[in-house]
Write a structure and sequence with these properties.
Layout: E1 7-12, H1 18-31, E2 37-44, H2 45-58, E3 66-71, H3 73-80, H4 84-101, E4 106-109, H5 112-121, E5 128-133, H6 145-161, E6 166-169, H7 175-178, E7 186-189, H8 201-210, E8 218-223, H9 232-238, H10 244-247, E9 250-256, H11 260-271, E10 277-282, H12 288-295, E11 299-302, H13 312-319, E12 323-327, H14 330-338, E13 342-345, H15 350-363, H16 369-378, H17 381-393
Parallel strand pairs: 1-2, 1-4, 2-3, 4-5, 5-6, 6-7, 8-9, 8-11, 9-10, 11-12, 12-13
Length: 394
C-alpha cells in the first residue's frame, strides 16, 4: 500500500495587517484540517506572536501540519525601506531560497501583483506556483492604453517564466480577459474570504454603549483602513446638500486603522462639519468587533474613489444584512446593482451622494435577502481555502 500523498505548500507575506493577516489566519485554520498538506508560512514574527496569543479568542485552529518561518523586525525594515522594484526582487529571492531549503512542492503568492518583477528578474523557482491577483485593471475603460499594455506584458512574461500553475483572480469580471494571455496557466475566480461570528444581543448593546452609538439615528458606517480612497471627504461634503432635519437623522461611524497624519487631517475636517455627528474608532479592529461595527450600523458606505476589484466590506455588509450605498465604478458597482445589495452613485459627486441619502432617509433602500445570503456563502473562508486547494493541488 503506497504512502499517502503529501503536499508541501509555502506562503510568503511580509505584511501582517489588514486583509493580509486575515487571509493567513483563515488558511491556517482551514489547512489545519487537511493533514495531507504541510504548510509553511514565511511571515513577520509579529503576526506569529499575535496569532498564537489570540487564536483561541478568535476561534482559529493550529494543526501540527502548520509551520512558521519568522521574519524578524530588522529583516522586515530592511525589505520595506527599499524601492518597490528592488523590494519585489529581494522578497521574491528570499521566498525562493527559504522554500527550496524546506523542499517546497507548491508555492502561493498571496499578492501576485507585487511579485511580478521579482519573478521576471529574480531567481528561478523549481516548484509549482500559484498566485492571487488583486488588481487586474488593465481591462477597465479608464485604464490608459500604455498602462494596460505594460500590465498585460508583465502578466504574460511573469507567469511564463515561473511556469505558474494557477492564477486566482479576486476580480471575477477579469477572468475572461486574463485567460487569453496566459497559455497553459489556469485562471480561476476566487472570492474575498470573510468570517461570520455569532453575536448576542448583550454584546451588541455593550458595543453601542462603549462607543456611544445613538439608537435614534441612522448610523452610516465607513469601515476598513482609513485613507483618502474611502470617500470620507465626499460624504462630509454631501451633507451640505441635506436639510437640517435630514442631517439630524444621520450619524457617521468611521472605524479602522489609520495613519497618524490622516487621523490628524480627519479630526480637523470633522470640526469643519459641526452639524454632522461623527463617531470615530481609530484603531485596527479584529474578530467579533468587526461584525459588531456592522451590526451597530444601518447603512454601509462604500464611496470608494476609483476602487479596483472586490472588497470584503461588501461581504461583511451582507453578513449583517445591511444595505450599501456604494460607488458605481468597477466590479463593486456591478455587484451592488446586479445582486440588489443597495444603491450605487458617482462617489466623486457630493450632490449625487446627497440625493441617494435623501432617498434612503425618505423612501428606504430595497435589497435582496437571498442575494445577500449567496454573497456570504460564496465568500466564506472555507470557500476561499477550497478554491485554493483545488487550483494548487488537483
Amino acid at each position: 500500500m503506497s504512502a499517502p500523498l503529501t503536499y508541501r505548500l509555502s506562503i510568503f507575506d511580509s505584511i501582517d495587517d489588514g486583509h493580509h493577516a486575515d487571509y493567513l489566519a483563515y488558511l491556517i485554520h482551514q489547512f489545519s484540517h487537511k493533514p495531507e498538506v504541510e504548510l509553511l508560512l514565511i511571515v513577520p514574527e509579529t503576526f506569529i506572536q499575535s496569532f498564537k496569543n489570540n487564536r483561541q479568542t478568535w476561534g482559529f485552529d493550529l494543526g501540527n501540519n502548520i509551520h512558521f518561518h519568522s521574519l524578524d523586525a530588522p529583516t522586515i525594515q530592511d525589505l520595506h525601506r527599499q524601492s518597490i522594484y528592488k523590494r519585489s526582487i529581494a522578497e521574491w529571492n528570499m521566498y525562493v531560497d527559504i522554500s527550496e531549503a524546506w523542499e517546497t512542492t507548491h508555492g502561493l503568492l498571496m499578492y501576485f501583483d507585487y511579485f511580478q518583477l521579482g519573478i521576471l528578474l529574480g531567481k528561478k523557482a523549481h516548484f509549482q506556483l500559484g498566485g492571487i491577483y488583486f488588481r487586474p485593471n488593465f481591462y477597465y475603460r479608464k485604464a490608459s492604453w500604455k498602462s494596460a499594455f505594460i500590465k498585460k506584458w508583465m502578466l504574460r512574461l511573469s507567469t511564463f517564466r515561473s511556469s505558474m500553475k494557477v492564477l486566482f483572480s479576486l476580480d471575477h469580471k477579469a477572468v475572461k480577459h486574463i485567460r487569453p494571455l496566459l497559455g497553459k496557466t489556469q485562471v480561476m475566480r476566487i472570492s474575498d474570504p470573510v468570517r461570520a461570528y455569532e453575536l448576542s444581543p448583550d454584546e451588541l448593546r455593550a458595543f453601542q454603549k462603549q462607543w456611544h452609538i445613538p439608537a435614534d439615528k441612522k448610523v452610516c458606517l465607513i469601515f476598513g483602513y482609513l485613507d483618502p480612497r474611502k470617500g470620507i471627504e465626499a460624504f462630509l461634503q454631501s451633507t451640505q446638500h441635506l436639510t437640517p432635519e435630514e442631517l439630524n437623522q444621520l450619524c457617521l461611524l468611521v472605524a479602522g486603522a489609520i495613519s497618524p497624519a490622516y487621523q490628524a487631517h480627519l479630526e480637523e475636517l470633522f470640526h469643519q462639519y459641526p452639524d454632522v455627528e461623527v463617531i470615530s474608532i481609530f484603531q485596527e479592529i479584529k474578530g467579533k468587533d468587526i461584525q459588531l461595527c456592522f451590526e451597530a450600523s444601518d447603512l454601509v458606505l462604500m464611496l470608494y474613489q476609483n476602487h479596483v476589484g472586490m472588497s470584503s466590506v461588501l461581504v461583511r455588509a451582507s453578513i449583517s444584512k445591511k444595505v450599501v450605498l456604494g460607488t458605481h465604478y468597477g466590479l463593486l458597482g456591478k455587484l451592488i446593482q446586479s445582486m440588489h445589495l443597495g444603491l450605487v452613485v458617482n462617489a466623486q459627486s457630493p450632490v449625487q451622494i446627497a440625493e441617494q441619502l435623501e432617498q434612503y432617509l425618505n423612501l428606504g433602500i430595497g435589497y435582496s435577502k437571498e442575494q445577500m445570503e449567496k454573497m456570504v456563502h460564496e465568500n466564506s473562508e472555507q470557500a476561499f481555502a477550497d478554491t485554493l486547494y483545488q487550483g494548487l493541488f488537483l
